TrEMBL record:
Regions that span the bilayer: 12-30
This protein's encoding gene: Piso0_004662
Record lineage: Eukaryota, Fungi, Dikarya, Ascomycota, Saccharomycotina
GO BP annotations, alphabetical order: dihydrofolate metabolic process; folic acid metabolic process; one-carbon metabolic process; tetrahydrofolate biosynthetic process
Ribosomal protein found in the keyword field: no
Protein name: Dihydrofolate reductase
Gene source species: Pichia sorbitophila (strain ATCC MYA-4447 / BCRC 22081 / CBS 7064 / NBRC 10061 / NRRL Y-12695) (Hybrid yeast)
Family: Belongs to the dihydrofolate reductase family.
Length: 211
């Protein structure tokens, strides 16, 4: 599919990763939405999830139904990506080949790998229940985080429940060069400032992962 050893896992299988933005308390959302709106962070997400090393390939984004519905209708499906939506009840996709509805993460990953175009990377993009399910599935070996700090209190009601930091963490922070190699392009290394928020981009790899 591609000559890059970082774009695909063993045997040409797409790399599966979680991509999320969070505050130090592991909060990621409030009432089904993100408690911040960061222009440069959104541009980073778009760049990371659309960039492939193989011009014939595409990336996939997997999201829960509530995350899908939180995207303004005029912006969905997210362009230049295969959109896969998890819902407990099957939906018709109205003939739109860029959107697939699945009833489980296992089905979503299977359909991504069998898609009509080669899928290079699969991004789990939320919400919280899906992040935690994906982690517990053992399918995810990579974690892309936007680490956000604020000069005010940020209320959240949705959290990442698995340990990312500290002694109980199953993740190892990677150097910035590894992040750029993984995503296939330049990534800002310095902390960014927007309004009340300061944030930076980080890459973690699962311990003992050999992808």
């Amino acid at each position: 599919m591609t000559s890059s050893g970082h774009s695909l896992g063993r045997g040409g299988i797409p790399i599966v990763m979680i991509v999320a933005a969070l505050v130090p308390e592991m909060g990621i959302g409030l009432k089904g939405k993100m408690p911040w709106r960061l222009k440069n962070e959104m541009a980073y997400f778009r760049k990371v999830t659309t960039t492939t090393t193989d011009n014939e390939a595409i990336n996939a984004v997997i999201m829960g139904r509530k995350t899908w519905q939180s995207i303004p209708e005029k912006f969905r499906p997210l362009p230049k990506r295969l959109n896969i939506v998890l819902s407990r009840s099957q939906h018709e996709n109205d003939g739109d080949d860029a959107v697939l509805f699945c009833t489980s993460l296992e089905e979503a990953l299977s359909k991504a790998k069998k898609y009509s175009k080669p899928v290079e990377k699969i991004f789990i993009m939320g919400g919280g229940e899906l992040y935690n399910q994906a982690y517990n599935s053992g399918q995810v070996g990579h974690l892309l985080l936007t680490e956000i700090r604020a000069n005010k209190e940020v209320e959240t009601d949705t959290r990442i429940e698995f340990p990312v930091y500290g002694d109980q963490s199953t993740w190892i922070r990677q150097p910035h060069s590894a992040l750029q190699e993984l995503v296939g392009g330049e990534v800002e290394e310095q902390q960014l400032q927007e309004g009340d928020f300061t944030y930076g981009f980080a890459y973690f790899k699962k311990k003992e992962s050999d992808e």
